[in-house]
Amino acid sequence: MRAARGSLQVGAFRGIPIRVHFTLLLVLPLLAVMFGGAFRRAAEVAEVPPERLLGSPALWGLGVAVGLFASVFVHELAHTVYALRRGGKVRSITLMMVGGVSELTEAPPRPRDEALMALVGPLASIFVAMAFGVAIWLLQGTRSFNLQFACFYLASLNLFLGAFNLLPAFPMDGGRIVRAALTGRLGAVRATRVASVMGRGFAVLFGLWGAFVLNPFLMVIAVFIYLGAEGEARQVRMKATLERVPVSALMTPWLAGVDAGASAWEAMWALRQARRLALPVTEDGRPVGWVGMEAVGGVSEAERATRTARELMRPVEVVGVEEDGWTALRRMAEKEVPQLAVVAEDGLLVGTLDLADVQRGLALYEARAERAGRAERGFRQERPA
Ligand SMILES: [Zn+2]
């Protein structure tokens, strides 16, 4: 449910779209320029004579930028492959500045799996760094300075990625490991709250440090960590609440939809009367589709008497009235639909559920849970994992 807004798809891995976040695209040229400026010093650190290196510093800078890109990709792929092996489902991979986001539609069920999934990314980065380290060692004395230098910066980048991601700054990998370690004792909601506070603390430190040394990267990273920590804590809280609320308590009751045989005129009339942009279409009381104002409005006036709701409707996704709110919300996200038709056990329409319904219910139940929590010290909101 973490949205990957502001990103560009660049490829796919086993059908999972791989996207690049715009911040990485912005950072690459900046990094190229910065590295170009620090080229001589970097060469000295790598014990390579700068005058023996081919190409311009700017070109090497570009190489570093591409190297970072590739390193982030390897890191993120490690997370994804592990998640898939553990039976998780990955919706998309977004490459960001210091790592990425593997958007899971199903999170690993056990804290241990989550911890391991978080750990494999940094481990992969450190492993790659070590491999390049070995390559540098093998290249000693061969006078292949260009290769040596390339290996040096790839080793450094991966070591940095591995180490940085292990910091307990939730939602970065290290923070996820901390959260998983706390989940057994505190439950998912409280463990996430603690990890989130730590993450925000780190974000403030990074931000201050970035401002002090005038490093724009650090400041951007700080903002990302802060918002990420806050967003995930909110999501976990939301999940804990919605899991305990049945759809019947959230939905808008709706016993009759537009009949499948109704004309476009009738459908339009029903929509206007209900003051809704879309209504379920039913056949013998069972939902078979959705008809929207847009579809009805697109029919010419001459045809409105002859076209039927059945011809104008789009597919419907349903949720059982006994299912919980979180399941419903996840179904909306997975099927990419703004609303669900709610059905009783016999398949008959009993209501509709959209995001507004869920949000309203969530606000109500969270307020109630908070009051209950205040009234009864030690009350555990969440189910122990
Ligand atoms: Zn990672």
What does it look like?
The structure is a single chain. With 385 residues, this protein is of the alpha/beta class. It folds into two domains: 7-242, no CATH class; 247-355, CBS-domain (Roll), CATH 3.10.580.10. Helices cover 58% and strands 16% of the residues. It is built from twelve helices and eleven strands. The strands form three sheets. Strands 1-2-3-4 form a four-stranded mixed β-sheet. Strands 5-11-10-9 form a four-stranded mixed β-sheet. A three-stranded mixed β-sheet has the order 6-7-8. Helix 3 crosses helix 5 and helix 4 (111-139) runs antiparallel to helix 5 (145-166). The two termini are 21 Å apart. The structure holds zinc ion (ZN).
Task: Summarize the model shown.
This protein has helices spanning 22-37, 39-45, 57-85, 111-139, 145-166, 173-212, 216-242, 264-274, 293-297, 309-312, 325-335, 355-375; strands at 7-13, 16-21, 89-96, 99-106, 252-253, 258-259, 278-283, 286-292, 318-320, 339-343, 349-354. It is an alpha/beta fold and 385 residues long. Strands 1-2-3-4 form a 4-stranded mixed sheet. Strands 5-11-10-9 form a 4-stranded mixed sheet. Strands 6-7-8 form a 3-stranded mixed sheet.
Which helices and strands, and how do they pair?
Blueprint: E1 7-13, E2 16-21, H1 22-37, H2 39-45, H3 57-85, E3 89-96, E4 99-106, H4 111-139, H5 145-166, H6 173-212, H7 216-242, E5 252-253, E6 258-259, H8 264-274, E7 278-283, E8 286-292, H9 293-297, H10 309-312, E9 318-320, H11 325-335, E10 339-343, E11 349-354, H12 355-375
Parallel strand pairs: 2-3, 6-7, 9-10
Antiparallel strand pairs: 1-2, 3-4, 5-11, 7-8, 10-11
The structure holds zinc ion.
Zinc ion binds at residues 75, 79, 99, 121, 165, 173.
